[in-house]
Amino acid sequence: MTNVESNVKLDAKGLACPMPIVRTKKAMKDLEAGQVLEVEATDRGSKADMKAWAESTGHHYLGTIEEGEVLKHYLRKSSGEEMAEKTYPVVASNEQLEEKLGGGAPIVIVDVREAAEYAFKHIPKALSIPLGELDQRLNELNKEDEIYVICRTGTRSDMAAHKLASNGYKSVVNVLPGMSGWNGRTEGLND
I need a surface site. Which of 24, 46, 103, 114 has the fewest CB within 10 A? Predict the structure, then answer.
């Protein structure tokens, strides 16, 4: 049994379509931006429904874990980050990061998404340090390393890159557009 952290759990077991979505929509309204909702459902169609609903509303469908008859769906409430301005001046494209990885360059990848997002899909060997934990975990990083910061769309990584640079990290690069457009190798719960 895999345990993925969520902020709120919703029991939609025994409910048929459209009720899991109706309850999810109501629960999502009460969450703060960036929080993760776990929805437990037994309706087999809910897997496709949850993903489609999340995409149509701008929320992030993280994935589904099947435990027997129960489907545990994980969704992250959108914060409107996709529209936010990116301001950190040193950036690399996903393709540039992939080239660095392919060339065996000694780099550190810091994934600043929430733990649940990282659990479902991340770049191999990326270090998970959610943005909200970065201040407390700065000592885990070497100020001399070349650090590539990644998140889902480039906004949280932009904030993290600013924070690292302002704390004396010498070579910090924000990866754009981030995991939402990543086509390179990944690992995670669904692999």
Answer: 103
Write the pLDDT tens digit of every residue in 49-68.
Answer: 898 788 778 888 999 999 99
Query: Is the Cβ–Cβ distance between 116 and 62 less than 8 Å?
Result: yes
Structure tokens at 17: 């379509």
Q: What is the pLDDT of residue 188?
A: 93
Please state, in angstroms and rounded to a whole number, the distance separating the CA atoms of residues 79 and 36.
Answer: 12
Catalytic residue among 5, 14, 16, 17: 17
**Other residues' Cβ atoms within 10 Å of the Cβ of residue 178:** 23
Question: Cβ distance 17 to 9 under 8 Å?
Answer: no
| Residue 20 CB coordination number (10 Å) | 26
The contacts of residue 89 (CB under 8 Å, 6+ apart) are none
Over residues 82-88, mean pLDDT: 61
Active site residue 17: yes
Q: Model pTM?
A: 0.70
The DSSP-derived string for 134-181 is HHHHGGGS-TTSEEEEE-SSSHHHHHHHHHHHHTT-SEEEEEES-GGG
115 burial via Cβ count (<10 Å: 0-12, 13-18, 19+): middle
